[in-house]
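Help needed: design a sequence for this.
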């Protein structure tokens, strides 16, 4: 079933349950042949950094690092909010695979033809 899907994530290690479930859903979408984007904003941008997700492993789920790696390997894209990233003084040279820093216009362009989305 072709189409697009967006998962918006505003948290990281501050809410590991939401961060984990967001990537579970994103993996389900990309496995369903959806052109899938996880949009990391506010605190979620911290997950764009290698090593940050390593300590997150919610009971009953795969480790967050594994979920993120599998998502990227399956062709999922991770858009990282540029102003949020800069506000937190994160390192552009330390991005996880699949992550790209973008402005809001890039997300709007991706969603412009009616892509469904879910937020965590």
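Sure. Designed sequence:
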């Amino acid at each position: 079933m072709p189409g697009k899907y967006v998962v918006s994530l505003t948290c990281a290690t501050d809410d590991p349950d939401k961060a984990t479930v967001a990537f579970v859903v994103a993996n389900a979408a990309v496995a369903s042949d959806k052109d899938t984007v996880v949009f990391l904003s506010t605190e979620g941008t911290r997950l764009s950094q290698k090593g940050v997700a390593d300590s997150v492993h919610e009971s009953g789920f795969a480790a967050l690092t594994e979920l993120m790696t599998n998502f990227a390997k399956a062709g999922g894209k991770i858009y990282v909010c540029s102003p949020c990233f800069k506000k937190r003084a994160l390192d552009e040279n330390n991005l996880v695979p699949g992550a790209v820093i973008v402005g809001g216009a890039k997300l709007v362009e991706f969603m412009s033809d009616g892509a469904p989305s879910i937020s965590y």
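Strands lie at 4-9, 35-40, 77-81, 99-102, 117-119.
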